[in-house]
Amino acid sequence: MDRCGVVIVGSGLAGMTAAxxxxxxxxxxxxxxxxxxxxGRTSSWVEGGMPVDSGLxxxxxxxxxxxxxxRDVGMDPHAILSWEDAVQIHVPDEPVHAYFRAAPVxxxxxxxxxxxxxxxxxxxxxxxALTYMGAGGLRECAAHPLELxxxxxxxxxxxxxxxxxxxxxxxxxxxxxxxxMPPEEFSAYAxxxxxxEGLKSGMTFRVGxxxxxxxxxxxxxxxxxxxxxxxRVRTNARVTRLAVExxxxxxxxxxxxxxxxxxVVLAVALKPAQELIRAALPDYSWFAPMLSLGTxxxxxxxxxxxxxALPSDHTNFSTGALCCFAEQSRTTFTHARGRLSVxxxxxxxxxxxxxxxxxxGRSRRRGASGCTWRAASRTTGWCDTRMISTPCGPGxxxxxxxxxxxxxxxxxxxxxRSSRGSPAWKARSCPASGRPxxxxxxxxxxxxxx
Length: 450
Hints:
- This protein is α+β, with helices and mostly antiparallel strands.
- It has three domains: about 5-55 and about 210-290, FAD/NAD(P)-binding domain (3-Layer(bba) Sandwich); about 105-200; about 295-430, no CATH class.
- Helix content is about 25%, strand content about 25%.
- The protein has eleven helices and 22 strands.
- An eight-stranded mixed β-sheet has the order 8-7-15-16-17-14-19-18. A six-stranded mixed β-sheet has the order 10-2-1-13-12-11. The protein has a three-stranded antiparallel β-sheet with strand order 5-9-6, with no helix packed on it.
- α1 packs parallel to α9 and α4 (about 125-145) packs across α8 (about 190-200).
């Protein structure tokens, strides 16, 4: 094979951005994607007849580089976005729910009113402490970002006078929903840096959802621009090894195929990047910090329902294992009558799922009613779960009432109590589906096919 100027491993947003910038600069670029579809962690595909996204993706109004890239390839960012401009917070085991508008420029009055309200989760004195914390954090973020990055947001909040009650409810819900981590492990810099960037840009903070799967609305148009500039984009091309000569990377291997290159860019998730580097360059100490990093565990579950599970498509954060969820039938998956996407955090420690592994299920049609359900799940990062237990139903108060939502063959019931006393979602068989009921002490046992 002819020598490539640059081989880019991975077709996610990072890989495709690098490919576009390099091809525009006149380099000969080849993008290698291991999977059958482009996008990596920003991909979408059809699984068992059901459109599936790689996660619950949102777009923030403070972004600058991504909109510039989209406009550069000939896309209008607003044409692929539906602005929600709100988030909701839920606390399992407590009747505490909060709704916050998040658009200080586009919806200033509503944003201010929700900030001044929601006293059940943020009492008035706690708002003063959070204001003091925010002012100090922004000042330190601008003056000493590296020092701030060495502090977790929980300790920073407590030193600023924020109560334990607010930390365990508001801060924990946000950090777990954004990056699947408790506030004790979440960098204070990672909290204040986006806010500081928003202030620099005129506080244009907003929350938007994509109008379609990520591969269709974003990645494929960028790939088309790369190909028009002379670049090559290949799928089903898993890089198995970095080719090294005299201590220098000179290309990659895709199975038995060797692809020589002047430069190689790794634009993949942390785990596969570590595996490639360990195998090819085990003695380079420069890589030691990266190779020592751990990965996050999370599972994305997506369900098509007979109707919307939630009254709006706003993003929801929770302090339980069901850390982030949203209805998407009005924004991303408009073909479905109901579409619930859920991210489960810290799901367990007894499984062998691989990163990016996905599975889907569909019940057998029976009777004239043809009652069906469809669900798909995908691991994020290095997931280690075999059984998923969701501690609370989204948007349901833990007050003992039971509400049902038919899931095309399954009736999902919220706010019932498990044997350990925590709220749980339980599945009960519909007559048409013929599926057995699970035992009352176990919830949502999910096993990928082998």
